[in-house]
Amino acid sequence: MKKINPTLPKGTRDYGPIEMKKREYLFSIFKNTFSLYGFNPLETPSIENMDVLNGKYGEEGDKLIFSILDSGDFIKNVDQIEKKDSNKLKREISKKGLRYDLTVPFARYVSMNRDKITLPFKRYQIQKVWRADRPQRGRFREFYQCDVDYIGTQSILCESEIIELVYAIFDKIQIKNISIKVNNRKILYGISEVLNFEESFDKCCILIDKIDKIGKEKFNNELEKIQFSKKQIDGLNSVLFFEGSNKEKLIFLKDFLSKSNKGLEGLRSIEKLMKLSKKFDFDVSLARGLSYYTSSIFEVVIKDEKIGSLCGGGRYDDLTEIFGYKNISGIGISFGIERIYQIMNEEGLFPKNIINSKTILVSCLSEEFMTNSLKLASKLRENNIKTDLYPDNPKLKKQLQYANNNSIPYVVIIGEDEVKSNLFTLKNMISGKQEKLSLEEIISEISS
Amino acid sequence: MKKINPTLPKGTRDYGPIEMKKREYLFSIFKNTFSLYGFNPLETPSIENMDVLNGKYGEEGDKLIFSILDSGDFIKNVDQIEKKDSNKLKREISKKGLRYDLTVPFARYVSMNRDKITLPFKRYQIQKVWRADRPQRGRFREFYQCDVDYIGTQSILCESEIIELVYAIFDKIQIKNISIKVNNRKILYGISEVLNFEESFDKCCILIDKIDKIGKEKFNNELEKIQFSKKQIDGLNSVLFFEGSNKEKLIFLKDFLSKSNKGLEGLRSIEKLMKLSKKFDFDVSLARGLSYYTSSIFEVVIKDEKIGSLCGGGRYDDLTEIFGYKNISGIGISFGIERIYQIMNEEGLFPKNIINSKTILVSCLSEEFMTNSLKLASKLRENNIKTDLYPDNPKLKKQLQYANNNSIPYVVIIGEDEVKSNLFTLKNMISGKQEKLSLEEIISEISS
Questions:
Q1: What fold characterizes domain B356-447?
Q2: What's the ipTM?
Q3: What is the C-alpha end-to-end distance of chain B, expressed in Å?
Q4: Which residue of B has its CA nearest to A14?
Q5: How far is A115 from chain B (nearest CA, A)?
Q6: Hey, is the C-beta of B47 within 8 angstroms of any chain A C-beta?
Q7: Residue B145 confidence (pLDDT) above 80
Q8: Which of residues 304-333 of A touch B (CB under 8 A)?
Q9: What is the dihedral sign for C-alpha B443, A125, A313, A149?
């Protein structure tokens, strides 16, 4: 048998038992809260047809889609193998790819099932996505995304509910001091109308999105490079960096945008939201990179910390149009659960006891008492106590070491004395305390 | 924008909200029971390096692995594009593939992490696998597998615990009348020694594995085809189809195998297991297709029903050897959760109330009462009641229809009367009953 060196593909990870328990804890908070807010789960396949994926993520994104080679004799029917042209060849030998995000598959699902679903349709989706990105520290090629979306309603109540949902979740995972920044793409467009740069609107949005990273000065330099006049730059600065409360910003912008219908429309949406919620920061300098957002946009950050956004989202006019299903407005937010996991891990926000807190190891000193061990384990499990059973009979020290390495807090020891007396030795692995107890006493000790 | 017809790749499925809830119910029973038995979760990447996958599943299996095209200019460094030879070309342009099962990645994980893990290592794994199989009714190219394994112990206690675990799970999901068939590959090998067909052992195992499908007569015909003598066939029939209790089989086989050390070794293992468990059926005609099983093998079926096996597994001497980690005995069982799901669905074994049983829809009759709806929803959620909020204000009939389509059992209606009186109309969608209640009364009605 040829030996193989076991390796993982670049940018992928195994999740071992401890990491899995933390992830399951985090995911269960997300799932329970989504369900408390009336969202239902959805899963789509990891594989999508290439024509569903291609052209949805921009030129750069398309390059990062993992392609799956067609099955069987894939080269047989390729008339001309265009030597050295990977792109042309790829289209001929690969008709499927791995899911790149959760939004496009969701739009595909809604379009395919339009006759079966009731609008408004609310779903959450926690699944892996794959990107052939250059792997870097903290950046992976396979990772989880977590999206929540409404589709088929234009109500501002959705914006308000999403804000509530974000607070509910961050409250439960104990990441404090968050700020939900809200803006409206229509306001940004209104500004471009007032300052006469509608034709550079998209470019300008991409720059605004980078202000946090590049700073105000470089931002203005970049505007100059794309031919913004001093007057335009000053005007843009006055509105983007206007400081004040949500209300003061509203008053200022009502005046600033007075000649732009679209701008005022965006402003009315913010105003409506203010009536429903006080829990967001109106931030005119929020732009979001993705071009499909057409109205409300939001981002969640930790105040006074430069670790980037933890969630982002917005309202899109018509994501399902490409699949032939028109006039379906939607709104969604994507929780960056990989980053959130990282923060919780670094800051020790996972409960200390999620790993094996109510677990017991039944350890057995001799093969002759195996049946007794089995019976005891079975009784403990009937009482819903997580019970591991050491399968062999090495020295007790090794069995206790096993409990320690697996963070199992209790060990029950069965030897000759225990079998005779029907009293079992229970060792608390944290305090070191050891006492002889009956089965009932053990159950009550651990369940308490 | 070019319109695209939304389609799914062959052999893949979306899981909509109702299917998801059923799946989550089923998976949670599995996870909770595994954890009650001291197994910990593990997840491995969907993508594995091709040299980890290739050569592990037999020639036929290798062909069914989905290959991922290398990123970037994959054809650039391919010196010779071997026209029309897909196999050679594939090796040059695809270094990764999709996970084909959960066993090989587990062996890879254990081998890579041998310095970090404590033996015996117990894990469960519920993840998707992909096979480029011909899609058929009930057969998919992407589906979940669910495996439980011990690695690093030879103890017969593992066999006994797995039997307990199987019963615990089938008891909870209420599939009744199961039988756990157990055999030992060493017994089969012993039979081949006694009857002198060691050199045809593997071929014969594959045939024995098919007896259920092809019947006794065809089985014997096939044996003739591979040059079995009448004496060999008669001998094999006498032992495979011997009827009796576990104990009677044991006595018969002790005599039959008296000249085969290996056979007697397998028999001793069965004998030991009988001392620990009475819950299995010793079945000499059980062979299992996979060649890596070397000792105990088992299969779970529903008695008197011809729907094939629901679980299968066995003990393997050394699955990690290929990755350079030697002498590590393991044992595992794979639950066919896709088939189990199908049976539960067909037989109505999912609880009637898993879909939105404790859910309420807050419906709002006019935009002016939106804030009241929001507040009410927020109070209900604080009391852990799953609350959906209708985001728009169409006619009540449409909102009730929404509740019906989503199987939401309660609707609370907010209009002018309700806001004035602070008493809300609660409609039970199943009984049709409608009453005016205070917030506290609603909470107690739904929580009860």
A1: Rossmann fold (3.40.50)
A2: 0.94
A3: 53
A4: B44
A5: 12
A6: yes
A7: yes
A8: 321-324
A9: negative
